[in-house]
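subagent[fold] <- orchestrator: predict structure for attached chain, return C-alpha cells only, no commentary.
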Amino acid sequence: MGLFRPYDRSEDASASAASNTSTAESTAKKKKVPTPTRREAEAARRERLHPTLSPSEQRQRDREAKTRNREEAWKKVDDEPGRILLRNFIDSRKGITQLWMPVIIGALALALAAMYINPEVAVYATFFPYLALFALAIHIFLLWRQFKVLHAERLPNESVRGLLMYMINRIISLRRFRMPAPTVKPGDEI
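subagent[fold] -> orchestrator:
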C-alpha cells in the first residue's frame, strides 16, 4: 500500500475488468444512425411537446379537452354533500315519484287523442295534465319541506341554494335515467 496511491481491492479489480470488456463490445458495434444535430434534436423535442396538428385533429383534441373539463366540473358539483343527501333522499322514496314524467306525457297524449275522437270530451281531458302538474307541485312542496328539515339536521352549516331545482329535475326523471345513478334502493333509510 503506497502513501499517495490507493490500494487495489478485489471488487474494484473485477469491476474494472467488466468495464474493459463492455468498452471493447461497444467499440465493436458501430452506430447505424448519425447523432442528430442540436437543432434537429430541439425541433424533435418541440414536436413531441407541441405537435403540429391538422385543423380536424385540433378540433377533436379541443372537443376532448372540453368534454373532460365539463365532466370534472360536473363531478365536482355532484360531490357536494348537500347534493348527495338530496339524491339519496329522492332516490329512497317509494311510490309514484319516479313516474311523474310518464304520467304527464300520458295525460297530454290522452288529451290529444280525445280531441280527435270526441271534441266535447277533449275539453275535460285537457284538465287532466293540469291536475297532474298541480299534484306534482304539491308533492314537490311537501318533499322540499321534509328535505329542508333533514338538511338542517345533517348539514347545519351548508346552504340549500340551488337544491330545489336539482330536486325538481331529479323527481321528474325516470329512475333509470337519473344522473348520477341512484346509489340507494327505494325504501332504504338514509
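orchestrator: received. Logging for downstream: The mean pLDDT is 84. The chain is about 70% helix and 0% strand.
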